[in-house]
Write a structure and sequence with these properties.
Length: 91
């Protein structure tokens, strides 16, 4: 069995979400269910998985492309006029 390391994601401040399912995000409901979104300004990163709206944020479980194993968990929220996402600890 082989295992590939997931692409690293820069830490630090939340990154702007550029698109969800190929279009600009309009509401947190765009992140609910099985979707994909793109984050980053300089270095774009595709996040694929499943999200769930919980209050004023989305908890999004990123999955790998090989069997749906969890890679990391993201928090998505609206920040002023745009949406941002950041990886979060799950413990």
């Amino acid at each position: 069995m082989s295992f590939t390391t997931p692409q690293s994601v820069p830490g630090g401040p939340a990154q702007r979400v550029l698109e969800v399912q190929g279009r600009p995000p309009a509401s947190l409901l765009d992140f609910d269910g099985d979707v994909s979104f793109v984050v980053g300004e300089e270095m774009r990163y595709l996040v694929q998985g499943a999200g769930r709206v919980t209050g004023d944020e989305v908890r999004f479980h990123e999955k790998d492309g090989h069997g749906g194993k969890d890679v990391r968990v993201w928090q998505v929220r609206q920040d002023e006029s745009h949406f941002v996402a950041e990886p979060v600890s799950t413990f």
